[in-house]
C-alpha cells in the first residue's frame, strides 16, 4: 500500500530475459502487485521473472504477440480485477528507474492528477546519454502529439513510465487504444476525451545495452499518419459530438479556405509558367485572401485548443 492506495505495476515484456530480473528485484516495497505480461517471448522471460521468487509477482502470457500496448492493456485488465487503486506501467528493459516511482504516485495520490508520466527532458542530465536520433525524433513527435492530443502542457509523450488512476482506466475504451508502439501517444488522446488531468514528472532514463524494437524509419512514416487521424477524431469527439465548440468551426472553415488558397495559387502559378502571361492582381487576391484568412482561423483554433488543455 502507498498512502492508503493499492498499487499494481504492469511490466510488458518481449524477450527481456536479460533485464526483467533486475526490474523485479529493484521494485519498491510500496508496490502490492507486479504483473509481468510476457508478450510471446522467444527467450526465458517468464522463467526469469518467476525465478525472482517475489510473492507479489504474477506472470501472464498473451495468446499472441500484441505489442507493447496490447500487452499493457492485457495487464491493465488484470490489475482492475485485483482491485488496484493506481496502476503503474514500467517497461521490462531496465531503462526506468524504480526509485522515482513515488514521484509518479504522489502526483496521483496527493495532487489528484488522473495520469502521471515521466519526462526525460525535464531531467537535463539524462539527455546527454540519449542517442541523437532518438532525441530529434522525440522532439518532432512531441509537437505533433501536442496537436493531436490537446495536451499542450506535456512533453516527451513517448515516455512509457506512467501511473494512472484505476477509476480513469475504467472510463477508457481499452479496446480502441493502439496496441503497439503508438500506445503512449494514443493514451493521451483518449484521456483528453474525458478531460483527464495529466502531469509530467522529471525522471531520467537509464540507457544501457538494450535495443529498441521500434524502427526510426517506421515511426517516422506511421506515427504522423496515426496522429493526423487521431487529431480529427479528437476534434470530432470533443468539439462536435460532446459539446459543439467554435474550435471545430474555425478549424474546418480554416482548412477549407487555406486549402483553396494554396491549391488555387499553385494553379495560377502553373498557368502563368505555361502561358507566359502575368496573372492579374485581382485574380491573385482570390488565392491570397482565402489563404491568409484560413491561416488566421487555423491559428485561432490552435490558440483556443491550448486554452482548453485540462489543468
Task: Write structural notes for this entry.
With 311 residues, the chain is an alpha/beta fold. The protein contains 11 helices and 7 strands. The protein has helices at residues 20-25, 45-51, 67-81, 101-109, 124-127, 132-149, 166-171, 183-193, 216-241, 246-275, 281-307, and strands at 7-13, 33-38, 57-61, 86-89, 115-119, 162-165, 198-202. A 7-stranded mixed sheet has the order 3-2-1-4-6-5-7, sandwiched between helices. Strand 2 (33-38), helix 2 (45-51) and strand 3 form a beta-alpha-beta unit. Helix 6 packs parallel to helix 9, helix 8 (183-193) packs parallel to helix 9 (216-241) and helix 10 packs antiparallel against helix 11. The longest helix is centred in the C-terminal third of the chain and has 30 residues, at 246-275. The chain is elongated, with a radius of gyration of 23 Å. The mean pLDDT is 91.
